[in-house]
Amino acid sequence: MKRCFIFAAGTFYGLRERPAAGELVIAADAGYRACLDAGVTPSLLLGDFDSMEQPPDFPNVRRVPVEKDDTDTMLAVKAGLEQGCTEFHLYGGTGGRRLDHTLANLQTLLYLRRRGARGFLYDLDFVWTVLENESITVPRWVPWALLSVFCMGDRALGVEEQGVQYPLSGACLTPEFPLGVSNHILEDSARVAVRQGVLAVGWELEPLSGR
Q: Which of 18, 37, 70, 75 gets the highest tally of CB atoms within 10 A of its CB?
């Protein structure tokens, strides 16, 4: 397993896990500022630099056109996949004034999953990932921890949620009704599974100290 840490230009709520020596760290445009705030030196700085001026002294910069199909975060994801990374941690991919980028980054998690990698998108004391025809077990970090599950596609069949306040078994989730929002983890961990389809799964984390 090779990990990639991506810092985007949304709201940075704090570093959950510090990259180890030799792991790939990519700053996407103004995500460079979040790297500086976290005391992390990126391996690569890329973007169209519409959110900040390109720093004149950074040695490894990949500048791209403003008019392009990929977001800067997606370009960072593609760069990480090119380097053989299979686990991605995305910071600064939510919040700010751009709900459209939050939605784009949730879709990017599915892009990763369909290429054999798993992504984690960090929000304020919350983290998101995507499942497709599979299951995941998530720990309970705090009492009465929140867990939310949303269908990403036409429908998700055979959905199960165990260890939660409102369990599901063999359920069908659809994108027009948010049945899976705001559940609570009651046991030490919760299990979420989908037999056929795609789910966005988010769960509450322990608050970071010093914030």
A: 75
